[in-house]
Amino acid sequence: MTRREMLKNCAAGFGNLALLSLLTEQGGTTEAIGQPIASRIPHFAPKAKRIIFLFMFGGPSAHDLFLHKPLLERDHGKPNPIPEPRIVFARTGQLMKSPWQVKQHGQSGAWVGELLPEIASVADELCFLKGMHGTNPEHGAAALMTHTGSSQFVRPSMGSWVSYGLGTENQNLPSFITICPNIGGGASQNYSSAFLPTAHHGTPLGTAQMDNVAEAQFPFLDNPKISRSVQEQQLELLQKWQRSQLEQAGPNQLLEGRIKSFELAFRMQTEAPSVVDISSESQATRKLYGLDDKPTRNFGLRCLLARRFIERGVRFVQVTHGENNKWDHHENLQKDLPISCREIDKPVAGLIKDLKARGLLDETLVLWGGEFGRTAAVELDRSGDPGRDHNPNGYTMFLAGGGVTPGVSYGQTDEYGYYAIKDKIHIHDLHATILHLMGLDHQQLTYRYQGRDFRLTDVHGNVVHDIIA
Question: Which residue ranges make up each domain of the chain?
């Protein structure tokens, strides 16, 4: 053995001893070593055990869905008196009230638009965040900020951080699954593990552009040309080579991640098909999610699959809606927004009702929203009927279950719904709060990379304790 080899091997040995000590101090177990998605102990008692993120790509208009702004109705057609920010996506003109009525619903009196009657029926289960705000008015950058906490750099996604912190409750399935992710607006970076171990990368099921979600399959899961016994022998050989490589060259995260992905794919062959197969679901459940109606069938199946995955122990499930910019209504708002709402209204409400009926809502955090909202004023330089421009300065998202206070609206925008002005929540604050609900301290959940400690909230973020039950 050369001096260089001796120092390298000794350093790795001391590092492993330090890692074991660190895991013990943080409440971890030795099983986590070599099993990157093994279930881990949270920092403190969690309110929620799993997350379903319903991402509406394109920027839903809160003015037409959740906001009651009498002054906007009064001043419809007048010049916008609110100074615009220095950076805007496009020019806007006169104020535009909503073409639809927004009314109060439930005992909570939550404001929900007439385009979302099914979501209105579960208003008392929802916690509306009406003071959301960001900085970037461009789809891709804002989507990255929503998913990763950064609009400029490649960073691990929210689901990857949750997977890294807590692992999965089922070793035969990934800890992070993304159902029908969009191929634009950040694309795979929205579910990337970036510099975290590759086992925490989101596993995609289909794409948002699929016309028939029932045909969605996990890629490269099965090899019909090779029997399971032969695949098992191949895995044993790969593991033997890996051990030999580690003995000679020391730890190799990329190699270990690749081997673990092979092992997981092998185990998924037995369990994943049964999760995707919904033939055992009752007719009542299918109707609840809207599978019996063409407009709602596609997204309804995505929501139903999300419920089935979290039932099997998947920690984080991301469901995307917004193919072909269905929420990006720069023009033709009156024609196109009802189509988008019709597709998601019944499935989202059905998911919440189903989770509650099965006793899963208390431990499952549901998050609904897009990367930003829309302006109160009409966008100019468009050939179609009026629409609204991008607005990251004040928008609405909502939460349900998972330890949040139901039936409340937290935060407020100005009298025209342009800027968040009271109880503002930045995406860093939302991320900090989500991790807190999962039993994770966002300041302690770190990963050292290139000489510094990284976290989902970077150097920002405050837990919004006011919305926690």
Answer: 1-33, 38-216+283-467
> Which residue bears the tokens 């209204």?
345
In sequence order, what are the beta bridge partners of 55?
A: 320, 369
> 327 to each of 13, 95, 142, how far by Cα in Å?
53, 20, 14
The answer to whether 445 and 51 are in contact (CB under 8 A) is: no
Residue burial 226-258, b: 16+ Cβ < 10 Å; e: rest: eeeeebeeebeeeeeebeeeeeeeeeeeeebbe
What's this model's pTM, rounded to 2 decimal places? 0.87
The count of other CB atoms within 10 Å of the CB of residue 100 is 18
Look at residues 302, 328, 317, 341 and name the one whose alpha carbon lies nearest to residue 120.
341
Residue 221's contacts (CB-CB under 8 Å, 6 or more residues apart) are: 265, 268, 269, 272
What digits encode the pLDDT tens for the residues 354-413?
A: 999 999 999 999 999 999 999 999 999 888 899 999 999 999 999 999 999 999 999 999
pLDDT at position 226 is: 78
Query: For domain 38-216+283-467, is the CATH number 3.40.720.10?
Result: yes
